[in-house]
């Protein structure tokens, strides 16, 4: 009898569980799936891209960068720069307020900048860690209720774009909270207000009524779900439970497209993938293959290696999309229009290597070299590195590929001591809004991001010439000259701008951006 | 009994210290974690500042002793990524993991025991062969693959169960919100079935085999023959006499099984987007958030050690010949 009751209960339980299950979002809710959760929601301390995506809906900024790379007014309606270029004063839109009803003025804007720099709070996020360092930020001050001035160490041609990354929040709300409280209790100023955060599961935001910059037809609620596994994200998308999925695996694109419920948008991202030549003396002194070191210090060899690799085929076969080979370190549309990418020309590469004094030996090998690459950091990076290694080996440069764990081995090797190489594969974040942002990787010979240790004086003297003029057309001429130097001297084996893949439900209208930002304020129901 | 309990607690302390030491050294062996907390454009000076702020500039033994000192006072430090008490972050995720593990345990026990008994009673037949073949399959199949297959066929294809996510039950219970816990229960079960089954399949298969072999051994003994010769019904012979005696190795295994299931949640929580400790640890290891990893290790070790203790006590209760000493 007891067993029979148990069986009946089990059957009832299973029938309950196996009822057709529907959890699709309603017409007012947009669901976005990202691979990781935010670790904190403090506007001064956002770190990862998924965290910044959510923050961009909670808080506004003085200016915004559009998906086309244009910098447009947002909380600031106009701005002026002083004669020395060290101060930019923004006139803010009147009548703004934070989500708790506190008026948002220039005092709050100045506080937002200064709070991020406060040594007692010791933030390490993107604003204090990268934006302020790149900006040369000194302080922010409120000149009136509507005027806020950002003071920098020196004129900075890319200041506006950087300032547009700083989230503006209200002083009284944040003064009343400790750092720990602020991390979990965001008081926003942007188009969506914070409703709920279930850690590692979801963050729910709700549209702010009467928001001055609201887009007509925007969704009432946004749910940011955390789905770490790419296959699960794709399944949720195809089942109609999620509307936008970031980081779709390219091999799932055809399946998603065939589902009829979603499509995959592939965009050429702004992350520059390249193979660097480690030209540093300290690396040369410690490396056990002097022939390889001597070879990569020869510009003819570096050009030959650029000609040896078929980047278009790598994109098609390994990244699942067409791409245009990079001509240098600057993202389109800011790259020089007259430069043509290095052509895939193995015969030409062999000629250059012969000319450089590295003929094939009896075994067909000119010289051996090591290529180091992270494994699983960038899109299909390990296979890309293996393919590059094979292309180089095909022209007689016997290439051994070392695949390394990114966080434990590669980062310390690259950032810590610049000891990767002689060849190393790397991806570096870029932007669409100014060539100088991308070029700032090589702002000085000793810049932390000059991983190759390249020291061509024709390039580095260009920075002084740019700083000496405020004329944008003149700056553009100098930029093009510098990029020609980069192209000719080839400190990088130039590859591609990493494509990004987004899965988008067929029930919505939304276009993915190139800069890895997932901004859904303009997403609408079809 | 008290002497036994105190000696086991001392043993547990040694285990926890050893486990945290190994974890600490392993995480540090893979390089300086500071680089994961600086911008890619950070200068050497900025990197040094962050290293000092995070405390990684101190000698390793000082860092570890500092952690141990905190542990004694119940403070395992602040998470580097969440910037709050690491133990709080772990305890916040623990209910979800416990829900998953209990459900997995229930599935494993509910199916393993009857399957093992049926196989033993039908030894050498097609039923026995079929059950053992399924058990072999269950032990061979990787949980990662099984999880994805369930998602594709049961979740996406048949739409019987939700693909991923979590509805809490223990968390509202702990907050005293019984109404919410009760109303969440039906939905929570739907979300639990696939991940719990994925975790439990290995245990279910292993325990079915164990029950079968244990039952076979007992069924061949004299007291079972005596019970049958007394004219008892077969069900009474199996349940009252044979199963009770076959129970001992199964209880031992089940106690350890909870710990095993707990360790299995890392992959399954990632596949099913389950917001538990397993996924937290996985991310913390990638980020080398050492205080967070250490806190989770301490919690897991405590659970494991406590379960072992419970099993030992239970063992003595089930078999009076066993004495705790």
How is this structure best described in words?
The complex is a heterodimer of chains A (526) and B (325). By secondary structure, chain A is α+β, with helices and mostly antiparallel strands. Chain A is built from 19 helices and 18 strands. Chain A has helices spanning 2-17, 49-58, 106-117, 126-135, 159-163, 171-175, 179-184, 230-238, 253-259, 281-286, 290-296, 299-308, 311-319, 346-355, 381-394, 406-416, 435-439, 457-467, 472-489; strands at residues 29-34, 63-65, 71-73, 76-81, 87-92, 137-142, 147-152, 192-198, 202-207, 221-226, 244-245, 262-277, 367-374, 397-404, 423-428, 492-505, 508-509, 524-525. Chain A has a ten-stranded mixed beta sheet, sandwiched between helices. A four-stranded antiparallel beta sheet of chain A has the order 4-5-7-6. In chain A, strand 4 and strand 5 form a beta hairpin. Chain A is globular, with a radius of gyration of 26 Å. Chain A starts with a helix and ends with a strand. Helix content of chain B is 77%, strand content 0%. Chain B has helices spanning 2-29, 44-54, 60-72, 86-121, 126-140, 143-157, 170-174, 178-219, 222-229, 234-263, 265-271, 277-286, 290-318. Chain B starts with a helix and ends in a 7-residue tail after the last helix. The mean pLDDT of chain B is 85. The chains are: A alpha+beta (526), B mainly alpha (325). The interface between A and B is large, with 55 and 53 residues.
């Amino acid at each position: 009898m007891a067993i029979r009751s148990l069986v009946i209960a089990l059957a009832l339980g299973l029938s309950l569980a196996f009822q057709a299950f529907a959890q699709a979002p309603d017409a007012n809710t947009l669901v976005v799936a990202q691979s990781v959760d935010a670790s904190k929601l403090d506007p001064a301390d956002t770190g990862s891209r998924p965290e910044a995506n959510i923050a961009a809906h909670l808080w506004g900024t003085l200016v915004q960068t559009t998906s086309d790379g244009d910098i447009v007014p947002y909380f600031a309606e106009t701005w002026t720069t002083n004669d020395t270029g060290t101060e930019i004063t923004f006139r803010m839109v009147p009548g703004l307020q934070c989500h708790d009803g506190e008026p948002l003025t220039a005092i709050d804007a100045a506080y937002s900048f200064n709070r991020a720099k406060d040594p007692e709070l010791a933030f390490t996020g993107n604003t204090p860690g990268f934006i302020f360092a790149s900006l040369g930020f000194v302080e922010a001050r409120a000149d009136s209720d509507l005027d806020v001035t950002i003071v920098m160490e020196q004129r900075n041609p890319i200041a506006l774009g950087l300032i547009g990354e700083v989230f503006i929040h209200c002083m009284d709300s944040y003064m009343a909270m400790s750092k720990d409280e602020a991390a979990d209790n965001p008081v926003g100023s942007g188009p969506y207000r914070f409703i709920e955060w279930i850690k590692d599961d979801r963050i729910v935001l709700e549209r702010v009524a009467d928001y001055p910059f609201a887009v007509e037809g925007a969704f009432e609620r946004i749910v940011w779900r955390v789905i770490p596994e790419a296959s699960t994200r794709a399944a949720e998308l195809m089942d109609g439970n999620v509307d936008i999925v970031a980081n779709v695996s390219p091999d799932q694109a055809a399946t998603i497209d065939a589902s009829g419920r979603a499509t995959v948008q592939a965009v050429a991202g702004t992350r520059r993938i390249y193979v660097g030549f480690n030209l540093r003396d300290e690396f040369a002194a410690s490396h056990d293959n002097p022939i390889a070191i001597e070879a990569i210090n020869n510009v003819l060899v570096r050009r030959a290696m650029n000609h040896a690799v078929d980047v278009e085929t790598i994109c098609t076969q390994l990244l699942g999309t067409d791409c245009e080979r990079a001509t240098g370190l600057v993202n389109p549309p800011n790259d020089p229009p007259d430069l043509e990418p290095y052509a895939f020309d193995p015969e030409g590469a062999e000629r250059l290597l012969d000319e450089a004094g590295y003929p094939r030996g009896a075994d067909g090998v000119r010289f051996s070299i090591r290529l180091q690459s992270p494994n699983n950091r960038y899109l299909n990076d390990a296979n890309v590195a293996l393919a590059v290694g094979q292309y180089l080996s095909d022209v007689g440069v016997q290439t051994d590929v070392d695949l390394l764990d990114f966080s434990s081995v590669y980062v310390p090797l690259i950032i810590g001591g610049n000891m990767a190489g002689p060849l190393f594969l790397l991806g570096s974040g870029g932007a669409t809004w100014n060539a100088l942002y991308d070029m700032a990787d090589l702002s000085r010979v000793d810049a932390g991001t000059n991983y190759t240790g390249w020291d061509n004086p024709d390039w580095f003297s260009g920075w002084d010439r740019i700083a000496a003029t405020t004329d944008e057309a003149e700056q553009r001429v100098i930029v093009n000259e510098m990029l020609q130097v980069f192209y000719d001297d080839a400190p990088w084996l130039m590859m591609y701008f990493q494509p990004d893949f987004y899965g988008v439900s067929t029930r919505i209208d939304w276009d993915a951006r190139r800069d890895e930002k997932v901004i859904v304020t303009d997403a609408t129901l079809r | 009994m008290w002497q036994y309990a105190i000696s086991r607690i001392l043993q547990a302390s040694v285990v926890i210290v050893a486990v945290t030491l190994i974890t600490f050294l392993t995480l540090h062996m893979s390089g300086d974690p500071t680089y994961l907390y600086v911008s890619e454009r950070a200068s050497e000076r900025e990197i040094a500042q962050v290293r000092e702020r995070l405390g990684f500039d101190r000698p390793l033994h000082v860092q570890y002793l500092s952690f141990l000192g905190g542990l004694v006072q119940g403070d395992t430090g602040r998470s580097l990524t969440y910037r709050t008490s690491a133990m709080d972050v772990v305890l916040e995720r623990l209910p979800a993991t416990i829900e998953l593990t209990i459900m997995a345990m229930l599935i494993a026990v509910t199916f393993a025991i009857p399957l093992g008994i049926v196989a033993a009673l039908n030894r050498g037949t097609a039923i026995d062969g079929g059950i053992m073949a399924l058990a072999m399959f269950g032990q061979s199949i990787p949980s990662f693959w099984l999880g994805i297959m369930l998602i594709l066929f049961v979740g996406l294809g048949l739409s019987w169960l939700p693909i991923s996510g979590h509805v809490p039950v223990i968390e509202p219970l702990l907050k005293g919100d019984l109404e919410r816990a009760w109303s969440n229960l039906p939905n929570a079960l739907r979300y639990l079935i696939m991940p719990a089954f994925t975790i439990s399949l290995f245990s279910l298969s292993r325990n079915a085999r164990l029950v079968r072999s244990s039952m076979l051994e007992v069924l061949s003994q004299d007291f079972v023959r005596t019970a049958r010769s007394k004219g008892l019904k077969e069900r009474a012979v199996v349940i009252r006499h044979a199963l009770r005696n076959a129970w001992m190795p199964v209880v031992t295994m089940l106690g350890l099984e909870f710990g095993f299931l707990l360790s299995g949640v890392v992959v399954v929580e990632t596949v099913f987007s389950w917001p538990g400790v397993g996924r937290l640890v996985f991310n913390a290891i990638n980020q080398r958030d050492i205080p967070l990893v250490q806190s989770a290790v301490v919690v897991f070790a405590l659970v494991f050690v406590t379960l072992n203790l419970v099993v030992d006590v239970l063992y003595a209760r089930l078999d009076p010949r066993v004495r705790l000493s």
